[in-house]
Each structure stands twice: as structure tokens, then as C-alpha cells.
Specification:
This protein has 121 residues and is mainly alpha-helical. Helix content is 84%, strand content 0%. It has one domain.
């Protein structure tokens, strides 16, 4: 039960942080590219690399690890919004943005996890 509560708290915190960061990015100006979701997903990949590495190295309580990774990072990042925005780009005929968004999200996401691991080793 404690794990579920901590995951819940981490997820809520991550969701609020995603909302705040996304809103601040979109306030910079309208664009055809979903920069807000792109930024939170890449940052979330870096964070999960850091959290997994640090919590493994310092042998932190598993409940805290779950709160940070499944909760915070899970609430912060969003695959469903990424998928919906990709579909909207495709439906709008913005093919270069569609392909750029998908390819760069996957490649930079993986590189982000690698960077997070490297930064915390």
C-alpha cells in the first residue's frame, strides 16, 4: 500500500510539472511542432536514466525508486500525447514535422536515457 501511495504522489507531481513546463514552452509562441511534449519526454528520459542509476548505486528504498521512476517520470512523460500529436501532424499533412517528431523523439529519448546514466555514474 505504501508503494502505491508513493507512486500516486510521484505521478501527480510529474503530471503537474509536465503541465507547467509544457504551458511555459507554448507561451513562447505557436508552432506546428509539439515542442512541449517533445521537451518533457526527452527530459523525462534523462531523468529516468539518472534515477535508475543513482537508486541502484546508493541502494535506496525500493518504494522511493518506484516513486521516482514509475510515479514521477511516468507522470511527467506522455506516450499517449506523443502518439496523438503525431497523428494530428500526419492528418494535417505536415509530413516533415511528423517524421521529424517521431524519429527525433525515439532517437533523442534513447540518447537521453544514456546521457542520464552517464551523468550519474
Amino acid at each position: 500500500m505504501k508503494s502505491l501511495l508513493l507512486i500516486f504522489l510521484g505521478g501527480g507531481t510529474g503530471s503537474v510539472l509536465r503541465y507547467l513546463l509544457t504551458i511555459s514552452i507554448y507561451r513562447q509562441g505557436a508552432t506546428n511542432f509539439p515542442w512541449g511534449t517533445f521537451a518533457v519526454n526527452i527530459l523525462g528520459c534523462i531523468l529516468i536514466g539518472v534515477f535508475y542509476t543513482l537508486t541502484s548505486r546508493i541502494h535506496i528504498n525500493n518504494d522511493i525508486r518506484l516513486m521516482l521512476t514509475i510515479g514521477l517520470c511516468g507522470g511527467f512523460t506522455t506516450f499517449s500525447t506523443f502518439s496523438n500529436e503525431s497523428l494530428q501532424l500526419l492528418k494535417s499533412g505536415l509530413y516533415p514535422s511528423f517524421f521529424t517528431y517521431i524519429i527525433s523523439s525515439v532517437v533523442l529519448g534513447i540518447l537521453g536515457v544514456m546521457l542520464g546514466i552517464w551523468m550519474s555514474e
